[in-house]
Queue: 4 jobs
Job 1
Amino acid sequence: MSEPEVQIIDDGPTEETAGADVEMSGAAAAEADNGDGAEEKPEDETVAEEEEEEKEEDTPPSQVFIDYLKSPIVELLVGEGDQQTILNSHQALLTKSPYFKEAVEAFGENPTSRRIPLTSEQIDAVGCFLQYMYTGEYFPRRLSSDKGLEHDPTQPQHDESGEPLLKHARVYTLAHKLGISELKSLAMSKIHLIHSTAKGEIAYARYVYANTAPDDISIRKPVARFWSLRSHVLRHEAEEEFRKMCLEFPQFGFDVLSLVLDAREKGKGERDHPEKLGSARKRARQG
């Protein structure tokens, strides 16, 4: 469709302008609507903006995800023995993990097989990882306002094994192995929303100290702090398990003892200098 011709007639026409026809289109028409004082953008900038707008209109939001789904299928061989199974995933999603990116690159140009072994991992943890890669979450999801997690019918009502904690601990260690830091943080946030028994907490502590690096304080320190605050009560509910844990992992016993002694030292300092602490609290209230 061609642009309409607009005839502009001045109140005081001259010989040069009287009856002249002016064609207006696109940016020019918009400028006329906005008034004569509107600042004119450089032509190159205007063209670039129009091209960018056209690109955004031409590319639907789902296009990137569709590209993931168009990528080749990779088989993940999970577990060992009778529990071993194969899970399938799209290569483009897997390669967001540095671990899987390196494994896929090892396939070569014309691979006869696209299979990656994960024989030391549990299928539930790998399933949680895949669910996260496709959806950005994994079950059970966090409820709004940190009220806890969705009900998981697969978990026992009374936890003696620590399985609800271990589920997310396994996701945490798998995410660390695969280099997905956001998934590590998500798993850690879910761990803090779970209430367990003394025996369940010991099982969780044993897994953490057996499967994480000594310098991974993001998960080890909360475990040690938990037992430094509650061991005088909880160890009677699981005294034998607590003793075995300390003997099996001396670092656990040392970490717990260090926090207990630090707390006592801090408490002794407060008792020895009550006036200093009192004045500090007073200043805090006034400030």
Job 2
Amino acid sequence: MALLAQVRSSFAKKSVSHRRLQMIGTRQVHLQSYIVTPKELSDALSKNILTKISTAPRVIPLCAAWFLPNDPKGRTGQQVFKEKRIPSARFFDLDKVKDHESPYPHMLPTAEVYAKSVQEIGIRKDDEVVVYDTQELGIFSAPRVAWTLKVFGHPGVHILNNFWLWVKHGYPTESGEADGVEQSSYPIPSIQTSQMVEFSEMKEIVKDHGKEGTEGVQVLDARSGGRWAGTEPEPRPGLSSGHMPGSINVPVPDLLDPNTGALLPAAELRSVFESRGVDPEKPIISTCGTGVTAAVIDAALGEADFGRPEARRLYDGSWTEWAQRTSEADGLIRKS
């Protein structure tokens, strides 16, 4: 009888151990929407399995902090990441993860460069990644990083709305040098070209604007009204300001809460687009200065459920490429 009890006890322990191992490898997905609140992220992080032997998918905060080259305080993304970040966050450097062969600032990197960069910060293909911005800027560059991950086929991508609210509501932060992470074996992905527009196609779309029988593609420009109108300079010296003929100016601040820097609620976002005359039934291309804040428009369109997702694209080269490859003389730059 004693021997039988011993066998049963041993079997029960092994069974419990097996169930624990099963749990380690089968973490449930807890984030459903593309735009998530601080509470949703906090709840999801609390369910991460904190053990080195776990191969379960994790929720990974990813800091996408980035500032314009003419930032008055001379701040850098890496600097503010060290000053204050979400615990266990990784840092995605927009100025490094790009096409270094291109003369334009933030063109998408090759699949090999992207995969290597993601491997170095320890992200696995089945991780849910929540991209967030600086406390100072609210929503700014995080949508571009999230869009980049989506273009390269990462299945679980979200944007935190936003880090300013995370801090205000008392969720934890840390500072200093980040702990090292184990590199992942992230596979080299394929690029989803259906989500982007290149210069040659963009040029034909703009040249065809207003012509009878054309598809009526709408171009939404995220730059400030002054840069769009050509009355204010671009932040990059020597670059002409102005806009593409037929483009619609939707400055990023118009999509954000003026007090928190968070994306406006869906109904208010819809009102912004409707007030600009944007037609949800027609294709939409988002653009900006270098392809960074164009992704804010894209995220806002998604949050507002405005337009068909498959009919929304982003012009990667944006104004920096456009203004260097076209001119007022050829009618492809307007000032008003």
Job 3
Amino acid sequence: MVSYSDVKASNAALPTTYGPGYVAVFTGATSGIGEATLKALASRLKGVKVYIVGRNESSASPLIADLRQRCPDGTFTFIETEIGLLKNADAIAAQVKAKESKIDLLWCSAGFLNFTGARQETAEGLDVSMTTRYYSRMRLLQQLLPLLSAGNGRVVSCLAAGKEGALNEDDLDLKDPKNYGLIKAAVHTSTMMTLTMDVWAEQHPNVSFIHFYPGVVITPSFSKGHSGGLFGWFIQYVVPILSWPISISLQESGDRGLFFCTASLYKRGPAESGEKRSKSTRGGAYNLHYNGESVGDEQLLNNYHEKSVDQKVLNFLQQKFDTLIK
């Protein structure tokens, strides 16, 4: 476990660790945990260059103004698009590649919880919730891996590390309505995220892959999914009240997010003098609770590795990319 005081001390020392030229791509950062992390980064680093992906540039203008106040010598570029479509993930990557030769960070926290319990599909035929939580994140990561490798960078995916579970290997997409549900979709995306990042971590030993669970943080996401009748109403209005005693503030969540993005604890490769490394998964990725503890059902995940389910998931993912992206 990493104490909050240690997190703040590490973040305070960042100006001596990272100089100007730090390049980051943020998705899901126009509100909630992503926004808090982005503000923490802009407050600590000088001369940063950040690409912020969101649906509405006009709505994000107060955020951009705030970031420029925090980091006057930084560059903040807004990419207006819908991250829930795979073709748009390719367009985002192409725009970044056209301007950068390396990136230090890819942050992913865009998400949508479908409280109706029924599958809702995008124009590409993928479930909306599973796309924002898994497919589009992995497509953007795949396309930006060459730049992350060039920068010895890291990807930080805020989702549900430690919440992995059994996969329906015959229907990884949960296409059959009988197999779909809010919890099932959440388990599938979390498990496939962990397995995919673990395989890619083996293939890209100089990139840090971090999948973390943010804990209970009351954010606007509690209301974005309020389309599911009574259950959605319960999530929006009752859960925040019941969760308050065990929740953490957005401020702490943003500080911890920045810690995951920058701390030497989650670097790849041998530790230098005085450095420590967190426990990693089999492939070398980091599966973390918000407090920095390594999490996950090792027996389940190792079993999936031994049975090559991780490769099955990766092949399934690539097949989706090849079929849907023209």
Job 4
Amino acid sequence: MPARNDFLQTIESAQHGAVHDIGGSRIQSQEWDYIKEHFVKAFRNGRRPVLPEESLYDNNGLCLWSKIIYQHPYYQAADEIALFHEHGEEYADLIGNVGSIIDLGAGDTRKVAHFLWILDDRGSKATYYALDISAEFLSSNIDRLVSQQDPAYQNVRCLGLWGSFSDLDRELRGGDFRRPRLFLSLGSVLFNDDKERAIEILRMLARHMRREDSLLAGMDGHTLPDDRVKVLDSYDGERAPWYQFFHMGFKRLNEVIGEECFKMVDWNIHRDIEADPVKHQFTFEAKRDVKMATLGITFRKGDKFDWFDAHKYGPEDVKEMCQAAGLEVVKVYGIEGSRFYQYLIKKA
């Protein structure tokens, strides 16, 4: 039997509601590395650069994001909650005596709360681990799970893991989890990339999954041409919350860079849906020349960068990516009037 690693020993003895740093304190340096190695190099090589999405998800950004996702016409959060209400009992039946629930990119935990109640009512002694890159936002959400319920969870234990997918990948290596695990990917997190990159992330997860483990993944399947208007409306960048969301991201980027490189007044925001693969995309176009001295680059008027892509994959695409990663979609779950789906996935 493999040795119990320090990570497992720490979290198994942790108190209900605790948050552990598994690499989150290094996130800012990782953002800086991305900006230098990807954003700047792409610009210098004549390609349209892409800003890191992590810069949108500090505490301020996540607090605003948690408001956006529950406002009409954004539909994904409401649909995913409805999926848990409609199918949660069946999920609980299928995953069996699960010991660990690992929520990849947990964000706002309101989506999973109902499912945890189902497990708690059944007497499950599972531990819910919420993984996220913002310590403050993670702590507040774990506190809400622990303290706001009346009565509080009697059986399910809730813990926070402050870090990234890569940090979790490292900590899970060699771990001896003795009971089945359920990995959660809510809000289109796991598949939200070009297929090649999404398959790479799925393969990383598949390396840790055993036959008795499961993955429950949500993915938005609204595509072109039928759902063009619905998708565009849900990402209405002209509305104040979205404008403020990107403003928060610029503020975070400037802190990481150490210079006020990004100001909303310098950029026009455009949005559209690309067809292959289907994804909604925000594009920022320079209104004037924008010099970024610390980065050693200057955006000329009309130059563009992309930020916050949102991919859309239907069931056939999800099954294809899972198969390529050594996984198998066991069942697809939906609700009436929506093409947002949840997938129960096992090791192939």
